[in-house]
Write a structure and sequence with these properties.
Two copies of one chain form a homodimer. The first copy, chain A, contains eleven helices and 15 strands. In chain A, strands 6, 7, 8, 9, 10, 11, 12, 13, 14 and 15 form a ten-stranded mixed sheet that branches. Chain A has a five-stranded parallel sheet with strand order 3-2-1-4-5, sandwiched between helices. The first copy, chain A, folds into two domains: 156 residues, Rossmann fold, CATH 3.40.50; 176 residues, Hnrnp arginine n-methyltransferase1. The longest helix of chain A is centred in the first third of the chain and has 14 residues. Chain A has 346 residues and is of the alpha/beta class. The interface between A and B is large, with 66 and 67 residues.
């Protein structure tokens, strides 16, 4: 094993030192332990631009704003640029970069960067607006709303506003042979280089993986229906681990390969950030809940009950979803099934 | 928090029990902790078919074969189908599935499944052929060759063969504005919704991320050159942490955004498995090593020294690469730079 520093010519090593004071090199580098995540979020134009528009519409000079999980600080900088006094909280070392970006943009005097968990942070005043981009895949992954709600209950003034102000989850029945093979259980239906791999399909059906995909609009067997709506000002963390039922009427005959899921959030002042198949793609894409494929016909009534449950041990990024599925045809129940899905959004 | 079993109707719960004996449900499910990985590998047609062809060409009835890291057992099944007696080793619980697949294909009597680390396993005989699909991104990620080489030194007979038999690494200079923005440092060169984010570029340049990408052939500023070649029969683990230099002559004027990397392995009997931009895509794709962009001209001589080093602490999946770069123009050195890259292959 080599020492990295000893490999670099001396004049180049000198260039490796950050020019601006930061907490420390090692902390800065550690912040890139999840590489590309800030890049991904900032490069997501629909996301970042929706927040920019909402912040510019809502924030007035002198307003007090709390940004929970500020990352590179981009939302805090939007708010500061609109005239607010901002408290920007993040426990990650990325905060050193956020500070530097505030300085580069002449906004450092209006942003208080607090490197801490938002659960521990103390603010001198209640705030008028709590801004946060806390949504994971299918909104719930990451469970960051827990921290946001703690911050809301401690720091938001009685007339304070939340951004996002509401969350809506949608579901739709999907026919998509390619997704069925690539993300469902279809790969195992056919011989694999002359070998029978169908036992793998049976195993997979016991613990299906929910993954992030790009759902073509043409794959929908009926329009999406709203599964859940939460008011971010009044709902509690428990409301996110929902149990909700939704029904669809199949619009054309086909094969039901699973369900597509997406979300919408209201950001205030009529700005919504949507992740449906009907709007330009975001980095969240859509979620695909595969099932054992099933022939369906025009007019079939499909009912789904979906329950979201945090994993018992550890990984808060991936909720478990339980799905009950019923299909009624001309008034009779012709199919009923139960599935368990783990979220995986690589 | 709900108990999953209690949510399912009783008759459906019964259906959740695996039909075939396995080590245990929990172990089976644990094997899906890295979801989709077996699916990804098996669905990679170029990969799986190259192994199938090589195994069918090399394996003769009665041959003894060791499969290191057998996963779902697909390579072991190819060898068994060709008449070999196979020892298939994996420490993952996926081995229960592999056993089931061997039974489904009538090959269970020819495959000995050993759930163990290959470093601990005992075999009754030396083997004639060691098969393994150990390659990570840019071949080196995962460092699984370490285990393969231990198995080789302990279990391969004096005239035994290795599959793969050799590994070649390639590098090429790349111009690609889209990659530069999406995976290089280009995102920060332009204002971000009216904010100056260029300090992030300076930070990123201190610790660049090597990622898996699809390199268009048109992005190459000169053909690829071989950086490293290893004989899998005779090389040692230390040989994988190489320090190697390669030179290119730029064929057209452009902007050098970084270097593309890929690998080739020989599988025996003239079958090669290649991951270059010139052959159909594999799940390994190509690797992109970004740099600070640089104008280059036809005839420029570009030299790169690349060193691969394991991370000191822990994560064996991501080697660190150090790159020295020189550019000579009409006999003069016009540029010299040093970069450090961490591998990230999400």
């Amino acid at each position: 094993m080599r020492n990295s520093a000893s490999n670099a010519p001396a004049e180049i090593q000198a260039g490796l030192e950050p020019e601006d004071p930061m907490d420390s090199d090692s902390e800065y580098f550690a912040s890139y332990g999840d590489p590309g995540v800030h890049r991904l979020m900032i490069a997501d134009h629909a996301r970042t631009d929706a927040y920019r528009r909402a912040i510019e519409a809502v924030v007035e000079p002198g307003m007090r704003v709390l940004d929970v999980g500020t990352g590179t600080g981009i939302l805090a900088l939007f708010a500061a640029r609109a005239g607010a006094e901002v408290w920007a909280v993040d426990e990650s070392s990325i905060l050193g970069v956020a500070r530097e970006l505030a300085e580069a943009n002449g906004l450092a005097s209006r942003v208080h960067f607090l490197r801490d968990r938002v659960e521990s942070v103390k603010l001198p005043h209640q705030v008028d607006l709590l801004v946060s981009e806390w949504m994971g895949f299918f909104a719930l992954a990451e469970c960051m709303f827990r921290s946001v709600y703690v911050a809301r209950d401690r720091h938001l003034g009685p007339d304070g506003r939340m951004m996002p102000s509401d969350v809506q989850l949608f579901l739709a029945p999907i026919e998509d042979s390619q997704l069925h093979v690539e993300r469902g259980v279809g790969l195992w239906q056919r011989p694999v280089h002359g070998l029978d791999f169908s036992p793998l399909m049976e195993h997979e059906l016991h613990n299906l993986i929910t993954s992030a995909v790009d759902l073509p609009q043409s794959s929908l067997l009926s329009p999406g229906e709203m599964l859940l709506e939460l008011d971010c000002r009044t709902s509690s963390t428990a409301d996110f681990f929902f149990e909700s039922e939704v029904g669809f009427t199949i619009e054309r005959p086909g094969t039901l390969h699973g369900f597509g899921g997406w979300f919408d959030v209201g950001l205030g002042s009529d700005v919504r950030l949507a992740t449906s198949p009907f709007v330009p793609q975001t980095h969240w894409r859509q979620s695909f809940f595969p099932i054992r494929p099933l022939a369906v016909y025009e007019g079939d009534e499909v009912r789904v009950q979906l329950r979201a449950t945090p994993k018992e041990h550890g990984d808060r990024r991936l909720p478990i979803y339980f799905m009950d599925l019923w299909i009624d045809r001309e008034g009779d129940e012709v199919h009923r099934a139960f599935y368990s899905h783990e979220g995986s959004f690589e």
